[in-house]
Design goal:
The complex is a heterodimer of chains A (113) and B (109). Chain A contains no helices and eleven strands. Chain A has strands at 4-6, 10-13, 19-25, 31-38, 42-51, 54-57, 64-70, 73-78, 87-95, 98-104, 108-112. In chain A, strands 2, 4, 5, 6, 9, 10 and 11 form a seven-stranded mixed sheet that branches. In chain A, 35% of the residues are buried. Classes of the chains: A mainly beta (113), B mainly beta (109). Chains A and B meet through strand 4, strand 5 and strand 10 of A and strand 4, strand 5 and strand 10 of B.
C-alpha cells in the first residue's frame, strides 16, 4: 500500500502567519494533489503536481502556493493565513500506472484565529 | 448547480438492512466514476470503481447510468462497521476528479 504522510494532524495559526503544510509519499508516484474539505462542499482541489517542479492550479488556488522540489514531497503554503482558510487539508497521490486510485494522507486540521 | 450532487443524509438504518445511495453528475463527458468511503476524522479511501456494466464486491454493488448521468451504490446486509460517509467521485479527464460532498450512513444495532 502507498503510504502518504502529512506533517501535522492539527495546527493552530494566527491571521497573517505564513503556514507550511507538507506531504510525503513513499512510492515514487508522479502525481500529487492538495485538497481542502469543508462541510457541505466536499473536497475541492487547490493545486496539483505531475512531476518535480511542475504545478497546476486547481479549482481554488487563491491564497495558496505550492512547492515540489523532490518527487516524494509536495508542500502547500498559505502565504498569509486568513480565517476563511480554516479547514481540513488533504494530500493525495495517484500513480501514473493506476489512475483509478487516489491515496490520501491522514489530513491536517488547520484553525486560523 | 454542483458538478456532483449527493443526498447528504444522514441515512439511519438497522443492521441487516439494504440501503442505496444515488449521485448525479452534470458533465456528460465524465469518464470515470468511483465511490470512496470516509470514516469520521479519517481520510477517504477507495471503496470501488464504477463501470458501465455495473460491478459488485461482496455486499456492495455499484451501477452507472450514463444516459441519466447518475451512479448508485447499494449496500446489502448492512453492518455496524459500514457507518461512514460515502463520497461519489467523478473523473473528467486527465487526473482531474470532482468529489461530491458525501452521504452519511449510520447503521444501528
Amino acid at each position: 500500500d502507498v503510504k502518504v504522510t502529512q506533517s501535522s494532524r492539527y495546527l493552530v495559526k494566527r491571521t497573517g502567519e505564513k503556514v507550511f503544510l507538507e506531504c510525503v509519499q513513499d512510492m515514487d508516484h508522479e502525481n500529487m494533489f492538495w485538497y481542502r474539505q469543508d462541510p457541505g462542499l466536499g473536497l475541492r482541489l487547490i493545486y496539483f503536481s505531475y512531476d518535480v517542479k511542475m504545478k497546476e492550479k486547481g479549482d481554488i488556488p487563491e491564497g495558496y502556493s505550492v512547492s515540489r522540489e523532490k518527487k516524494e514531497r509536495f508542500s502547500l503554503i498559505l502565504e498569509s493565513a486568513s480565517t476563511n482558510q480554516t479547514s481540513m487539508y488533504l494530500c493525495a497521490v495517484i500513480s501514473a500506472g493506476d489512475q483509478e486510485t487516489q491515496y490520501f494522507g491522514p489530513g491536517t486540521r488547520l484553525l486560523v484565529l | 448547480r454542483k458538478e456532483v450532487e449527493q443526498d447528504p443524509g444522514p441515512f439511519n438504518v438497522p443492521e441487516g438492512a439494504t440501503v442505496a445511495f444515488n449521485c448525479t453528475y452534470s458533465n456528460s463527458a465524465s469518464q470515470s466514476f468511483f465511490w470512496y468511503r470516509q470514516d469520521c476524522r479519517k481520510e477517504p479511501k477507495l471503496l470501488m470503481s464504477v463501470y458501465s456494466s455495473g460491478n459488485e464486491d461482496g455486499r456492495f454493488t455499484a451501477q452507472l447510468n450514463r444516459a441519466s448521468q447518475y451512479i448508485s451504490l447499494l449496500i446489502r446486509d448492512s453492518k455496524l462497521s459500514d457507518s461512514a460517509t460515502y463520497l461519489c467521485v467523478v473523473g473528467t479527464g486527465g487526473f482531474k476528479t470532482i468529489f461530491g460532498a458525501g452521504t452519511r450512513l449510520f447503521v444501528k444495532a
